[in-house]
Specification:
- The chain has 467 residues and is mostly helical.
- Helix content is 77%, strand content 0%.
- The chain contains 21 helices and no strands.
- It is globular, with a radius of gyration of 23 Å.
- The chain starts with a helix and ends in a 5-residue tail after the last helix.
- About 3% of the residues have low confidence.
């Protein structure tokens, strides 16, 4: 149940950005773009501050009190968003006052929901990568269930539930019998050194996020909210079998890390196809809008799974890694929202907008093929053992009885064939995971000189000359 708090967060974003339940009276979706613009700006600033000052935030971000405060702040912001419109408060309230209330609600909801999201960073960062992906698919299904349950309720009840979603998510994060194993460790561990590949990943995330939001906004910004809501309903129906297929694939794939690279590439290629459809064929249709929602959901999920993979791999840096990653997602969406608002206000012509979309499509294609390719991803996501002790602590039972991962078994087979001793085998596993001699020495509680001696012996027995 604890992990489903993220499902409430996903459901809140789906409802807010589609206008479902709370927005029916206006003749276009410009108000949802305004919400997204201010909300994401607040998210981006909050995430950036959390990432830059992770050592300070890590001391209190996992506290239940902080989580509930975040949920309450987001609920108050949502309440303002739903009511700060003339259709609700009446024409007697000045437009300027409504604008201030609405923007205040967007800011508060951005800050509050961000605090819930960073709480999930620690939770999911403790899970082995494929189990984290399984949980993400599970949370997405949970969010879809929330959406359709509220869709069947009278509008006042659906709006009230939408306002309460952040508090419900906070409650789910906090309701547990004990602390999740390793949660405090990945928060308290000194920040890891972020590599060049990580910054390339952030640039790639920002680019793809810009393209996704630009497609969605280009199709939906000038149409009635009912159009956007209809496209969202269709996308939710498409996502159900997709999430079930991902969960089934996780159970079958075990510890194959290359799956993350392939999923990222597939999502980016689907994005490129959408861009081509819009830029070349002017397919501003509900089907394209629904496709954009689906690709956006899948892309975000893959990005989060990769970020959690890095947290699990490095055994720390949860706030910096996840906050920077989601800031890249928010920043890309923010840029696209600004372009869409300029287009809607006729500051950008139709032909120029298509050129911009086409150029971004070319940039995404170059990025996927050459800059941040599958090879680059696999070079960043080092092999990790997803079996062993971690599995035994997973209350879900998913893989709980699984033996050590296939990668570890393969390494042990190589070690036996080369005649490595038990201690050399332990050092060999550390080297193969990409750990430094000092990291292995700290882990095995021995001198670094002992590790170097074992390393020389391993190189000789395996007939290799470098790590």
């Amino acid at each position: 149940m604890t992990y489903l708090g993220l499902g409430c967060w996903i459901a809140w974003n789906t409802i807010a950005f589609s206008g479902s339940f709370w927005l029916h009276e206006t003749d276009n979706s410009n108000i949802t773009e305004s919400l997204m613009l201010v909300h994401l700006l607040a998210c981006f600033i909050t995430l950036s501050l959390v990432a830059l000052f992770a050592d300070r935030f890590s001391k209190w971000v996992a506290k239940n009190r902080t989580t509930f405060i975040g949920g309450l702040v987001a609920a108050v912001g949502t309440l303002l968003i739903c009511n700060a419109r003339s259709e609700v408060l009446g024409a007697a309230v000045p437009h300027s006052a409504l604008t201030v209330l609405f923007n205040s609600g967007c800011v508060l909801s951005g800050i509050g929901t961000t605090m819930l999201f960073v709480r999930a960073a620690a939770l999911f960062g403790t899970l082995p990568p494929h189990r984290a992906l399984y949980r993400l698919a599970e949370c997405t299904l949970f969010s879809i269930a929330i959406y359709f349950v509220l869709n069947g309720c009278p509008q006042p009840i659906a709006v009230a539930a939408f306002i309460a979603l952040p508090v419900i998510g906070a409650a789910l994060f906090c309701i547990r019998r004990k602390d999740v194993r390793g949660e405090k460790q990945v928060l308290a561990t000194p920040p890891v050194k972020l590599t060049r590949r990580f910054w390339v990943l952030l640039a790639s995330i920002g680019l793809c996020s810009t393209a996704l939001e630009l497609i969605r906004a280009y199709v939906l910004i000038s149409v009635p909210p009912t159009f956007a809501i209809g496209a969202n309903v269709v996308s939710q129906l498409i996502e159900v079998p997709l999430m079930i297929a991902i969960m089934a694939a996780v159970l079958l794939a075990k510890s194959r890390r290359d799956g993350f690279a392939k999923m990222y590439s597939v999502a980016a290629c689907a994005l490129t196809v959408l861009i081509v459809c819009i830029a070349m064929f002017s397919l501003n249709t509900p089907a394209v809008a629904s496709g954009a929602w689906v690709v956006c959901t899948c892309y975000n999920m893959v990005v989060w799974a990769m970020l959690y993979y890095l947290v699990y791999q490095w055994r720390g840096g949860a706030l910096r890694i996840v906050a920077f990653g989601n800031a890249a997602l928010s920043g890309g969406t923010l840029v696209a929202s600004l372009l869409a608002m300029a287009y809607q206000a006729s500051h950008i012509s139709e032909s120029v907008m298509k050129v911009i979309i086409a150029l971004i499509g070319v940039a995404v294609l170059i990025d996927v093929l050459f800059v941040f390719s599958e090879k680059q991803i696999n070079g960043m996501l080092l092999p990790v053992d997803e079996g062993g002790a971690e599995a035994a602590d997973d209350s879900s039972g998913i893989g709980a009885a699984r033996q050590p991962g296939r990668w570890k078994l393969a390494c042990e087979e190589v070690a036996r064939a080369a005649g490595l001793s038990a201690r050399e085998t332990e050092v060999f596993l550390g080297l193969a995971r990409g750990r430094t001699a000092q990291e292995i020495a700290d882990r095995e509680v021995v001198s670094i000189y002992t590790i170097r001696a074992h390393t020389r012996s391993i190189y000789a027995k395996l007939d290799v000359h470098s790590k």
